Amino acid sequence: MKRNFLEKYRYSLILLRELVITDFKLRYQGSALGYLWSLLRPLFLFVILYVVFVYFLKIGNGIAHWPVAMLLGIVLWNFFAEVTNQGLKSIVGSGGIIRKINFPKYVIVLATSASAFINLLINLIVVAIFMVVNQVELSWSILLLPFFIVEIFLFGVGLAFILGTAYVKFRDVNYIWEIIMQALFYGSAIIYPISRVIDMSPVIAQVILFNPAAQAVQDARAVAVSSELPTLYSVSGSVLMSLIPHLIVIVVLVCGAWLFKKRSPYFAEEV
What we know:
Elements: H1 2-8, H2 10-27, H3 37-56, H4 66-93, H5 95-100, H6 106-133, H7 145-169, H8 172-187, H9 194-200, H10 202-209, H11 212-224, H12 232-236, H13 239-263, H14 267-270
């Protein structure tokens, strides 16, 4: 069965590998610092947000290892943003190849997502260093971290299928998604503790955490940095409520794959 699977998708897997390598090589081509920007970009953002929100505004005071939790949140959110933003433009950006070669178009979206995943792995090394420096106590719960990374990845890929398909016909999608992502970044408790929202309104906190990306970030913080950090389950107290973001991921991924498959035969004519 495994052999049949590999034979069936052998061409797609080879193409995926080549596209990932090419995308990663071209991303920082001509840059003096090259791949170091994969580390420096989130670090610079972290430093700016740390100085403003933690040092001056004292947000996160009294929360164990909050700077590390904030850095982890920024890294995971940037991963989600990169998967969706790059996926949105991937089909149109590969218009020349699509018009010349007949191949499964989903490989293009998966290639940009895989490239984003490589960046994430590099950034997680920085997070690990900060965890050691800040003497974060590790527990077996950190083994659950890959589960939440996969959740973000699948949610991002599902959205990338939808956004990439829509962008082929409607270029305004790019600008609309930029606004939505900016609103979600500040509204998803990435740079401030979700406990602040809980103190104001537990209901609003639950609504925020129904967003799979926000829920996965909070759960990742709880298993990797501090078990005292709130999650959707601890806020709602309901297993069923905590399953809602996972159901949303499944629905978005299935609908995105269906829409992409339905429209992909026409991409060569439309891009």
